[in-house]
Amino acid sequence: MTKILPVTEDSLKEAKSLILKGETVAFPTETVYGLGANAYNTVAVNKIFEIKGRPNDNPLIVHVHKDFDISALVDGVPGYAKILAKKFLPGPLTMVYKSKGTVSSAVSCGLDTLAVRIPSHEGAQRFLKYVGLPIAAPSANISKHVSPTSAEHVLADLNGKIDLILDGGVCSGGIESTVLDCTGEIPVVLRSGLISREMVEEAVGACGEYVYKEGGVARSPGMRYKHYAPRCRTEMFELSEYKKALALYDAEAEKGVSVCIICDADGKKFVGDRKYMCLGSKPEEMAANLYSELREGENTCELLVVISPGEHKGVMAGVMNRLTKACGKRYEN
Ligand code: AMP
Ligand code: MG
Predict the structure, then answer these.
(1) Which domain holds residue 248?
(2) Confidence of residue 228 (pLDDT cuts 50, 70, 90)
(3) Whole-model pTM?
(4) Alpha-carbon distance values, 265 to 26, 235, 269, 316 (Å)
(5) What pLDDT is attached to residue 312?
(6) What is the C-alpha to C-alpha distance for residues 8 and 288, in angstroms, rounded to an integer?
(7) CB atoms within 10 A of CB 64
(8) Closest ligand by atom to 220 CA
(9) At residue 333, does pLDDT exceed 80?
(10) Which of 9, 36, 121, 282 is buried most, with the most CB atoms less than 10 Å from its CB?
(11) Distance CA 36, CA 176 (A)
(12) Residue with CA at minimum distance from ligand 1 atom 5
């Protein structure tokens, strides 16, 4: 029922007609695949929540073409945001502004702010240009499952639930965009990603980081939820605890459980002849591999033993945020 088509004139035509009819379309971006709908159409936006099983207090990001004038959507873009937009957009950075209330209130779940993103992926840009509308889109997966970084991942979650997946290949970024609150005096990172806090700080001199406190009011409501979890048991260990990780692997394997280790290049040195997947050695490489390895792990194993790369700085803050959430722990950020 669900078609996967490469991004061509014909598929874009089909995508546009679906969007104008109030349906959803999955499309590629440089971070993960998105499930898009016309941001002006409340019925269409609500379909996204239904299809994903997404809690209705977790707001969506609006995606626009690089030439779209965002003053149609938001108010009060501060000077630092203009500098950041010039430096990092199009790219994996979502900026939250005061909303003008022109898109459906279902997009922001009633908040008076709006998250806006200009993706750099060529397929995403072609789709957004062809459709010519702001597109509300979260990741194109079932809520709380691992985000999709290929058209096949989208199909595995949403087959039969949507009409069309535009296939733009494997996402190069691999983790969701950095979400930056641009409503205050200085920008504040609400969700870490490939544009790190340090990069923002270097560009505009200051950047805060929002830390969600259990039970508190979340400035980025998505933070309250467990996310990105594979469908098999997952246990995480620090690199310094690698002996415990290997003992768990051996004990479970002995019982006949199929186990796989996920580690980085440093952890790989300890795994011996056990089954493993290596995320890589550079943060960007680890981000790009993370979700496809978690999905491969859940499809082929009963237990994933994660030996943590452990660093929380720069781009690794984003990788560790997703990895920790995947392992069932609520990350501090
Ligand atoms: P997803 O599209 O699934 O990657 O999730 C979008 C993320 O952006 C979630 O963590 C949301 O909480 C966050 N977000 C979207 N809109 C807003 C907003 N207006 N204010 C703060 N965070 C937002
Ligand atoms: Mg998501």
Answers:
(1) 233-326
(2) confident
(3) 0.95
(4) 33, 19, 7, 14
(5) 78
(6) 25
(7) 22
(8) 1
(9) no
(10) 36
(11) 15
(12) 138
Q: Give the pLDDT of residue 332.
A: 41
Categorize the per-residue pLDDT at 311 as very low, low, confident or very high, splitting at 50, 70 and 90: confident
Residue 27 lies in a domain: yes
The pLDDT of residue 217 is 64
60-84, pLDDT tens digit by residue? 999 999 999 999 999 989 999 999 9
- 147 CA to middle of ligand 2, Å? 6
d(Cα 97, Cα 77) in Å, to the nearest integer?
7
The DSSP secondary structure of 172-218, one letter per residue, reads SS-SPPEEEE-SSSS-EEEE--SS-HHHHHHHHS--EE----TTS--
Question: What residues contact 73, with CB distance under 8 A and at least 6 apart?
Answer: 62, 64, 97, 99, 100, 102, 103, 114, 116, 134
One domain, residues 176 and 252: no
Give distance in angstroms: CA of 271 to centre of ligand 2: 32
Q: Whose CA is nearest to atom 23 of ligand 1?
A: 220
CA distance 205 to 182: 14
Domain CATH for 60: 3.90.870.10
**Gap from CA of 246 to ligand 1 centroid (Å):** 37
CATH number for position 242: 3.40.50.11030
